[in-house]
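Re: Re: ligand-bound prediction request (bumping)

Still looking for help on this. To restate: I need the protein modeled with arginine bound, output as structure tokens. Inputs repeated here so nobody has to scroll up.
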Amino acid sequence: MTTTLWSGRFDGAPDAAAFDFGASFRFDRRLFEDDVTGSRAWARALGRAGILPADEAQRFDAALGAIFSRADTQQDFFTANDEDVHSFVERLLVESLGDSGRRLHTGRSRNEQVSVDLRLYLKRRIPLVQRAVAGVVQALADQADAAGDALMPSYTHFRPAQPVLVAHFLLSHAAPLVRDVERFAGAIREADALPLGSGAIAGTAYAIDVEALARDLGFARVVDNSMDASSDRDFAATFLYASALTMVHLSRLAEDVIILCGDEHRFFELSDALSTGSSMMPQKKNPDPLELVRGKTGRTIGQLVAMLTTLKGLPTGYNKDLQEDKEAVFGAEDTLAGCLPVVRSVVHGLTLNRERAAAAASGLLLATDVADYLVGRGLPFRRAHEVVGGLVRKLVAEHRDFPSLSMEEWRAASDRFEPDIRDRITPAVSVAAKMTPQSTAPAAVRSRLANVRKWLTAQGLC
Ligand code: ARG
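Reply:
Sorry for the wait, this slipped through. Here it is.
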């Protein structure tokens, strides 16, 4: 028969199906390490407060340490029917120390315990996610390096807009991922508060030195309010938001790569090892891994929405609804852990088709440069826009391009055009003409790439 931490209040055994429905050990065993860490520190805090004799506190600490080691060696360690990870650890402690093990829970509630566990978990797991995100940034930076001054078109409204460096395009995907790593750092800061000492909701009637306990567990601070602490999962929601936004960024990167590797563009070639074939059409080379990344983004957004929806209607204080936080957090973490290395490999394996990308960066994309030329000769921009618009209309109708215009045709459009207009209408001159640090000017892109390299070094990657 199953025993619970709360059976004293009840006449008989719980309904088996309802017990299974409410049990969380199936997924919260993932907090085992953190539950042991938190419980060991709690035992030490009880000892420091004189609530447990020093030698007993030490015995608790040691017994919990031994329980932790068993997880590595004992095959069927987690095949138990406990209600949750907290009950599981406590049962093992009682099995190891006898009845005195039951004193560990003095002054402590599972409501704060589950919060401390999840906070500890996120504090140790988010850095791994950050590292994997930085790995994608690194692959993008490497490709940007290799691309040098190669050119491609940029798009707005998915119509060719202006020439850019391929490196600029690649770094445009690195920038949001760098922000994601910083956003995850914010999620760590939010989780970095000790909830122990909050009791079930009103605080604890034992003189626990929570500041010392926070230091012992590596928390930066203690929570402000015990009532808030028992129902606060903002730190989980923040983690889910950072995860969802990272997946959105990966999805957009995936979408760009899918398009730009497609037959219509072929600016890049996907590595064979990261593509799949069709069972029917022999010519196909499909970007399945990227499609899966794009597809999985929906679940991560769903996990964020599920968490926020769970939180929005809760009365203050712990409610069992909060148990839903863990599957959302673990699910988002698993999705990221699956997607990030794949995206990194795909980016790493891209081959740039320089000629094709550069060829697509030429032509009417240079219309803004022609207008800028007229502005340089004193024409107001709005007038210049009109003049060049007329020229574009003519060229489109005649299936022609700027370089095919004779000097007479240029002059017919505006007498401010001089023969040097011919040298201005190349993609290389267009990108070189950009003046701002965030622009596609080669010097600006090189300097931004150097910044990304510096950032990667600071992340312990390069
Ligand atoms: N499994 C529970 C959870 O995830 C642990 C806290 C249980 N607290 C309670 N009062 N039933 O939220």
